Amino acid sequence: MVAAASLAFAVVGQPLIAYIPKPVLGGLILYIGCTLLWTWLVVARRHVAWPEYLTMLFITMVVTLWGFVTGVVVGVVAGCIIFAFNYSRVSILKHQLNGAVYASSRVRSAGQTELLRKHGAEIQILVLQGFIFFGTADRLYRLFVEQIVRSDKPVRFLILDFQFVDGIDSSALSSFRKICNLAALQGTHVYATGADAKLSRELSVARHEEFAVITAAATLDEGLEACESRLIEAHATQGESVVTDLLAWLGRELGSPALAAQFLPYARRREVGAGERLCSEHDPADSMHFIESGTYAVEQTGVDGAHMRLRTLGHNTMTGEMGLYRGMRRSATVIALQPGVVYELTRGELERMRRDAPALAEALSSFLVKALSERLAFSNVLCMTLQA
Question: Which of 176, 201, 236 is where one domain is finished?
Fold first, then answer.
């Protein structure tokens, strides 16, 4: 009704304005203007920050001297500048990690795991977030210089994860070029992970020789796994042996080579072909597997029916121990990605081991408890790092 009355007055009521005394109209305009000035120049001071308040004073001065339209234009420009400044102060980093506290889903042998914990700081991970433009990208460049270029320890790999990035400004590419140039001088290889199709196109718009040190990876886990493998190869060539056969690995984990030799008759040797399943999700967990060779994917079915890879297993690792000891059904499917050899320990053989070789059963239980404790300790450190 109010809108209809206002519209009717605007259409047919203009002659009525001539009958309103001019002092009344002038007083109304003065009242509205003074109210606005009081609200935005006095009361607003208690509710807005100094930059916004000074902007309002500046807009008032511009409107007074050069008119309303000029004040609107100046206000829009000033608002954009303040927004860009404030947004550039928001941290572009969601997480800053390294390979010593954050590992890929690839489950590695004890020797390789120890090597990664020792040298994992040579893999630096920067998980980015938000919209990247010249302000936030410059902060990223300065962070790279302060914490990586000037670091006492060498950084072999730098992973820039774009999974939580909404977009990137073309002006920010200059900062990435400078990062790539410095990385090349430092001997650091850069991995760009998690970028969707649109963001990948934006990153490749100005790609040239400066971006030669960048390797693209679909996910952070994929890029981190590649960095871990290259790091292991680099340090293994320096005399650190990380590959051992199954008997030597079991001998070290069980406490003596004699216990390892005593263990093998209880486990059934099984040759597995590519694509063959060691176990299936929801099946009874009546055995566990010790992997001598090959690569295996641990997958779980999501709510949408899609298969999601949880872990990747290699030599000198094991799987199925939690289901076997807890008497539960399989929580995931294990599929061989390439031919290999595994040793399967069934529930019946485990019970026989407990009766006939209690010392071996105790050593095996201690080995499993130690392995699970190390996983838990690693997870605790990771949780503390992510919450920091």
Answer: 236
